[in-house]
UniProtKB/TrEMBL annotation:
It comes from Rhamnusium bicolor. GO terms for cellular component: nucleus. This is BZIP domain-containing protein. The keyword Nucleus applies. Residues 38-101 form the BZIP domain. Belongs to the bZIP family. NFIL3 subfamily. InterPro entries: bZIP, bZIP_sf, PAR_bZIP. It comes from the Eukaryota. SMART domains: BRLZ. Pfam families: bZIP_2. Residues 1-22 have a biased composition (Polar residues). Coiled coil: none annotated. It is found in: Nucleus.
């Protein structure tokens, strides 16, 4: 079964419309004649409406959970960046102290050699 493509765009993405999230295009809506709208039809519509609402609610809940998780991760990231900065400063300070101590030891040793 071959799908029709738009004449201006032969890419496979054009099958799904111009949206970047590749949503499937819906078929053309065909009105149901009144004489075919029986109890079975209305029951199908009711079940379909319930399923659509359930799907929308589930998607909304997933999106809310993702947004909350992103907020938490951003906060944790900010804390970790601050800790990295503090540790880098501490490392630099300790490195300077070590260099000063080594320089002092060298000058002390050199002066003892000169005195002897």
């Amino acid at each position: 079964m071959e799908r029709s493509r738009s004449p201006n765009n032969d890419s496979p993405c054009s099958l799904y419309g111009s949206n970047s999230n590749f949503k499937r295009q819906r078929g053309e809506k065909k009105p149901i004649p009144e004489e075919q709208k029986d109890d079975k039809y209305f029951e199908r519509r009711r079940r379909n409406n319930q399923a659509a609402k359930k799907s929308r609610d589930a998607r909304k809940m997933r999106e809310d959970q993702i947004a909350l998780r992103a907020t938490i991760l951003e906060h944790e990231n900010a804390i970790l960046r601050a800790q990295v900065l503090t540790l880098r400063e501490e490392s630099s300070s300790l490195r300077q102290m070590l260099l000063q101590k080594k320089a002092l030891e060298l000058t002390t040793r050199d002066s003892q050699i000169c005195i002897s």
